Amino acid sequence: MRGGPSVLGIVLAGGEGKRLMPLTADRAKPAVTFGGTYRLVDFVLSNLVNAQVLRICVLTQYKSHSLDRHVTTTWRMSSLLGNYVTPVPAQQRLGPRWYLGSADAILQSLNLVHDEQPDLIAVFGADHVYRMDPRQMIERHVESGAGVTVAGIRVPRAEASQFGIISPAGDGTRVARFLEKPKEVEGLPDDPHRVFASMGNYVFTTKVLVDALHQDSEDDDSAHDMGGSILPMLTERGVAQVYDFQDNHVPGESASDHGYWRDVGTLDAYYDAHMDLVSERPAFHLDNRKWPIYTHPGQLPPARFVAGGIAGESIVGPGCVIRGQVTGSVLSPGVTVAEGAVVQGSVLHDNVRIGRGAVVRGAILDKNVDVPPGATIGVNPDRDAELYTVSGNGVIALGKGQRVE
């Protein structure tokens, strides 16, 4: 950040993503396609880069090949100015072990901090869909003099058990308590029906973070997790404050997508976030040119609609050829829909092929799935449950290249 404190960005991208299976069977969760042409990691990287945080380390671990390749081929910064976005795989720098948790991941990568010697460290998660200007959170952190500032989003009190919950002190900003997925919790003083859920985004004063990581590493009973270990430790010291995501505004935002944030860690959440994109009035706009989400554009021709093919309330990526009927769906590059085929309320990844007369409803098909002519998905629930992965809300998911019966 020019004219201000030096900031190193650390993106935590090493989780397994078990709840997003089968989409994570062959890739890390941050590498999962979203919105047709993006990867999940593109959202956090775009937010940081748009905010002029231009030195970023992406910590990876599980099944990271496609993620590493995407970061290295897409996120090329100006080396002349010393800027970079680089993947950093687990390297066992502190012994023959992989990352024990998100805090341990940073501990094992402290050589990055020592090399850069930043004033502040922005530690952000890699698998959420949102727009945010981290500069505003960083400025609030500097003004407050806090050791750590954690981004909080207001969620219904009834959903508190799904998140790490931040209880603010009487001043409304200092963190009084941090509770990991509590069953019961009081609402906010100014909004009793809502609570602050941690977004997994933190800004640390460098010395505070480094000292906390070393102390945590000596605790054999610790989970070595940023939210479950480091934040409660700093909360007890009285140096943690909350940043209300509702106060964050990005250029070009609309009234409808201000404050939009989705944790897409489950099939249902992933599917619902896609449906947010294709509604008549999208809850989240991908076309904000004042705060763009960047990705690799690929080298494919524009989509074609031939032989009477139509698509309504849908996103259709480049290289698609539509001869059938598509409604309320998101199609990644290279998808083909043959004559007489029907695709409704579905998410199709790269190079999916829908055969003549086939029907696909309420499904997520990973790349290279070939649906034969006349086949059906989402028509017979009992048959689908026998053959494919079906979420709690009935979304049908097929993994990469999975055979359709």
Comma- or semicolon-separated keywords:
Spore Coat Polysaccharide Biosynthesis Protein SpsA, Chain A; alpha/beta; 2 domains; 9-stranded mixed beta sheet
Query: What is the CATH level 1 assignment of the largest domain?
Result: Alpha Beta
Radius of gyration: 22 Å
Structural class: alpha/beta
Query: Helix proportion of residues, in percent?
Result: 10-25%
Q: Uncertain runs with pLDDT below 50, 5 residues or more? A: none
Number of domains: 2
Distance between the termini: 54 Å
CATH topology of the largest domain: Spore Coat Polysaccharide Biosynthesis Protein SpsA, Chain A
Shape: globular
CATH superfamily of the largest domain: Spore Coat Polysaccharide Biosynthesis Protein SpsA, Chain A
Beta content comes to 25-35%
Number of beta strands: 29
**CATH hierarchy: architecture of the largest domain:** Alpha-Beta Complex
